[in-house]
Amino acid sequence: xRLQFSAFLLAFxxxxxxxSYNLPKELNEISGxxxxxxxxxxxxxDGGNENALFLLDNSGKIKKKVIVxxxxxxxxxxxxxxxxxxxxxxxxNNLNNRKNLRIYRIGIEEIMSKESVTAAFMDIQYGEQQSFxxxxxxxxxxxxxxxxxxxHLWIFTKNKTEPFDGISRVYKFKFQEGKSNKLSExxxxxxxxxxxxxxxxxxxxxxxxxxxxxxxxRVIKLELDGTKFKIVKEITYPNYNQKEALTVIxxxxxxxxxxxxxxxxKAQLRKVLLK
Length: 275
Description:
It is a single chain. This protein is mostly beta strands. It is 9% helix and 49% strand. The protein contains 3 helices and 22 strands. It has helices at residues 2-17, 108-113, 196-199, and strands at residues 20-22, 30-37, 40-45, 52-56, 62-68, 78-81, 85-90, 101-107, 116-117, 120-126, 142-149, 152-158, 167-173, 180-183, 185-190, 203-207, 210-214, 218-225, 228-236, 243-250, 253-258, 268-273.
């Protein structure tokens, strides 16, 4: 009976997760991934790494590397796409003390055809942040999630408050080249109060009228009703690791990617089936 039960659990986990692939060492610190078409994903690494985009096939193999010549990877944390332009989020802010947050924009045709590109950019600050860093009770100005949806860019912040209150600030804005914008909070969402290792937002995407967000332990599917977000579905990952990248490939099918960790394992690209 024990063997049969174990076999059932393995089969269920495979149906939930789908395929998985080890990523090359060049993406050991992957922090963003974006579906472009049926054969191409774009990925990037987080802060301190090369100012480069990586075009991948569906098994995570690198097809091409593209250097963003006028960018510095201070703390790149996500990437999103509106059909014409790719947007890079240099918004990682672990200590909540950065005053140089930046969004880069690059045409997809340039990325697909060139080895190096020049990006347009805009600088941003959060209007609600008055101190750098703020009091420990207000440490929710870090962010690892940038989403393009409904003609706007959306940031969901990563909460690190002490004590942890689970609130993610949501900012909605349009890209304005060369501008320095002070963003105003659109709304907030509370994803739970168990701590940042379980309930802090680390990645996101939008497709088929829904937002898909990730924490280290689960996928959260949301719909927007006016200025309020409603959680439609939550799926817990069968394994826990440092998942910091997510993109939707079709309705309720997503790719997630995790960084390499000496205890939690290799950097991997994994399909998750939410059905």
